[in-house]
Amino acid sequence: MAQSRRVEKVSSLIRKEMSQLFLQGLKDQRLQSGLITITEVDLSGDLQHCKIFVSIYANESKQRDEILNALTDAKGFLKGELTRRLQMRRVPEIVFKLDRGVEKGNSVLDLLGKLEEERKGKNQIRDSLDAE
Fold first, then answer.
1. Residue partners of 71: CB distance under 8 A and separation at least 6
2. CB 54 within 8 A of CB 68
3. What pairing do the DSSP bridges indicate for beta strands 35-43 and 93-98?
C-alpha cells in the first residue's frame, strides 16, 4: 500500500514538472504548432518505466506526428531536467504515447450532432406531410 502511494506521488510530481517543462523548458519550434496536454502518467511499480500520455491539439495529423516526434527527440533533455528537479537517484525511462481519447470523444459528439440534424430533418418532412 505504501508503495502504491509512492508511485502515485512520483507520478504526480512527474506530471507537474513535465507540464512546466512543456510550457517553459522546450524551445523546439515543432512544439509551437499545437497545444499539448498531459492526460495521464503511468508509472511502473518499480519506478523504472513511465508512459506519459499526451493529447495534442493541432490542425493536421502531420503536425501531431511532428509534435510527438519533437517530444521523443527531447526525452534525454527532459529526463535530465527531471533528475535535477526531482532529485531522484534514478529517473524512469520515458515513453510518450498519443492519447486519442479526446479525438474519439469529439468524433462521437460530431456523429451525434449529425444524427440529431437528420432526425430533425425527418421530423420536419413528416410534419409537413401531416399538415397537407
1. 31, 36, 54, 78, 96
2. yes
3. unpaired
Using CA atoms, how far apart are residues 24 and 53, in angstroms rounded to an integer?
A: 19
94 within 8 A of 54, measured Cβ to Cβ: no
Distance CA 99, CA 36 (A): 11
Topology adopted by domain 2-99 = GMP Synthetase; Chain A, domain 3 (3.30.300)
In the predicted structure, residue 85 carries a pLDDT above the cut 80: yes
Burial 69-106 (b: 16+ CB within 10 A, else e): ebbeebeeebeebbeebeeeeebbebebebbeeeeeee
DSSP symbol at 47: S
Q: Are 2 and 11 in contact (CB under 8 A)?
A: no
pLDDT at residue 12, as a whole number: 93
> What per-residue confidence (pLDDT) applies to 39?
92
